[in-house]
Amino acid sequence: MEIIISNSSEIPIYEQIKEQIKIKIISSELKEDDLLPSIRTLAKDLHCSVITTKNAYEELVKEGYIKNVPSKGFYVAKVNKDIAKEEQLNKIEEFMDKAVSIAKMNSINKKVLNEILNILYEEDK
Amino acid sequence: MIGFIKKDLAMIKSNFKLLGVLIFVYAIMGLMGKMDISFILPFMCVMIMISSFSYDNYNKWDAYCISLPNGRKNSVKSKYITTILMTLIVSIITVILSFIISYVNTKTINYEQILVTLFGTVFGTLLVLTIMYPTIYKFGVEKARIGIFLLVFGIVIIGSLLANYVDLSNVLKYLSFLENYLIVILIVVAIIMVYVSYKISEKIFSKKEF
Amino acid sequence: MENILEIKNLCKKYDNFELKNISFNLPKGMIMGFIGENGAGKTTTIKAILNIIKSYSGEIKIFGLDNLKEDKKVKEDIGVVLDDMFFPEILTPNDINNTMKGIYKNWDSKMFYDYLKEFSLLPNKQIKTFSKGMRKKLEIATALSHHPKLLILDEPTSGLDPVARAEVIQIFQNILEKDDCSILLSSHITTDLERIADYITFINNGEILLSKTTNELLDKYGIVKCTEKEFKDIDKKDYIKYKKSKYEYEVLVPNKKEFKTKYNISVIDKITLDDLMVLMIKGEE
Questions:
Q1: What is the pTM for the complete model shown?
Q2: May I ask the CATH architecture of the domain A13-76?
Q3: CB neighbours of B140 closer than 8 A, spacing ≥ 6?
Q4: Residues 68-87 of B with CB under 8 A from C
């Protein structure tokens, strides 16, 4: 499992961990009932504090992505992929909304916006 | 406790060679019928142990040892036990050598003289320890060294003054009844004074802050 | 959560320095970074915890036990690295092993020699032949080799180069993973602590300025950079300290999210522990 943490990012480290595990679950890289590394092991391997990984796991439990089996560890929960995807779509919408409003403020038309989107989308591939 | 003794022994082990050389010199000189330097040997033990205090001090071991379980008590105890053990071992070696030397030189063994000399030196050695250790714990090695120098100096002066003005033979006459018990008395007094000294050192060190 | 170390109202007076009402707790299984300037009182506090100084007022509990009354019991389970204090340098690591075997009930010779190997320290060389970094590593190896439940480390990374520092920090994290150990780690090299410390306790001039989780500090606190005019509009209770420089005002705010919603100031930087220390010490209220 790969998790990449940026120290300089504005996003808190626990959130970075949380988001990346979430994406792995949605993309089925992590499957239902897979055992996740323990809080302490993850902290050691990511070179971050125990509280950080604990926070990340606690939030993932709260959001239903993983479950805590006492004295055994954390397992990937049964996730409704549609709902999970929906959540991600909402997030995209949020960012797009910002982009659109900036475009409108500066009277940049939809065509240019689409072009930017296309370039960005291809770039990542 | 054993750990602290091992540490003290490890620290002074480089001095064992010196001690060995001294014992060798003593044996040679004795066999050649030259000067008897046996009194130096037990005394050296205390001197070597005092140097261990300097080592401790230099690396601030005293502060560190307090962070170990029972460090305050055991580090003091180990100094006393290590010194006494060393003195006893060296004394036994000295006595055996003295017996041999005596036998080689005179074909008899002068038990009494050898034992009296030995008990005298061991007593003197323990007296130094009794005074020095609490002084070291209180004031540090350097000041204590100056102190012991002044003390010995004072005793010599007072002693020689006494010898000049007081007729010691009279005093000795009064004390002669003690002669038969002399060794027992020396041992008892030595044990008491070392114990008291140990308690004082322990008390001083238990209050020390670094 | 169970506290491994509890300090309550610790006070100690010297002629020219004073510890004032030091209180903080270290929860079980956590690393606490103990930060502050040189001379702020870190070492004095640590010495009080270990009874190296005794005449203080206040209460210190380790594993729930009084540190003075249960001195021996408590110390069996503590590993220490102290700044500038250690074994006499004519001794060798072998001697230390022999000594510690006779001191700690749980001394683990194998573990000790494994660490020596890992740190490339020769067991039969006198400490005086070791460099400063090697000595530190030996001290750390000694502190770890009796399976302590609490590690008290005063500047354990001082004198180490960045590679060795990373190595040592990794070892602390390994212990935290395997043994159920808690760590109080004082350092003025704050970058070591930023990622691995769960809690940060910040001492200045003998007083605890704050004791919080690292996440709360680094994720919530922020530095607002603004003009004088903008600064005048900020409510006093929305910031902790500020520093004026030639071109800008640097303002330490306790909650950057709230700040963002309330004020229209765009530059809010992430904070580092170094920034925090400098602003807390040098900033104005």
A1: 0.83
A2: Orthogonal Bundle (1.10)
A3: B57
A4: 68-72, 74
